[in-house]
Design a protein that fits this description.
7 strands, alpha/beta, 151 residues, five-stranded parallel sheet
C-alpha cells in the first residue's frame, strides 16, 4: 500500500537536515515513493554603514553570490540524490530563491504534487524560537500538505 507517493525534502545542508533526508530516503524506499530534494537559496545581503545618511554596501558582486549559492545547492542536492539512488529511490531536485524559505517549500510541494513534506527542526523553544524563528514551524502552520518533522 502506497501511503505517500511523492515526498518533498527541504535541505539547508546542515547535519540535522542531512538526517531528515536520510530518514526520508528510508521512508520512500519502504513505500515505493519518489523524492524531490529542495533547497532555498539564501537572499543576497547587504551591510548598512554610517549613521544618518548612511547607505548599504554589497558584500559580494551579485553574479559571484549567485554562482556560489548555486554551487552550494548543487553540492547538497547532488549528495542527497546519490543517497536516494543508492537506496533505489527515484529523485529529482528543485532550487528556488528564498525570499521566505517556508513559502518556497510550500510552493515547491504544491507545484510538484508532493503529498508529504519531510523536514528537520532544531527544536528551539522559548525566546530562542521567537528570535530565530522557525521555517519548520511556519511550514507546519501554513501548509495544507502533511509535514513529518525530524529532530
Amino acid at each position: 500500500m502506497e501511503l505517500f507517493k511523492h515526498l518533498l525534502v527541504p535541505t539547508d545542508g546542515s547535519p540535522l537536515s542531512q538526517g531528515a533526508a536520510e530518514r526520508a530516503v528510508a521512508i520512500a524506499a519502504a513505500m515505493g515513493s519518489r523524492i524531490t530534494f529542495f533547497h532555498a537559496k539564501p537572499e543576497r545581503r547587504q551591510s548598512f554603514f554610517g549613521g544618518e545618511g548612511g547607505g548599504y554596501v554589497d558584500q559580494m558582486p551579485g553574479e559571484e553570490f549567485e554562482r556560489q549559492a548555486q554551487q552550494r545547492a548543487d553540492e547538497h542536492l547532488g549528495a542527497l540524490q546519490a543517497l536516494a539512488s543508492a537506496a533505489g529511490v527515484a529523485s529529482e531536485r528543485a532550487v528556488a530563491d528564498a525570499g521566505t524559505p517556508y513559502e518556497g517549500i510550500i510552493d515547491a510541494a504544491r507545484s510538484r504534487g508532493c503529498d508529504l513534506i519531510v523536514m528537520a527542526s532544531h527544536g528551539r523553544r522559548g525566546i530562542k524560537s521567537l528570535i530565530l524563528g522557525s521555517e519548520t514551524q511556519k511550514v507546519l502552520t501554513h501548509s495544507k500538505i502533511p509535514v513529518l518533522v525530524y529532530r
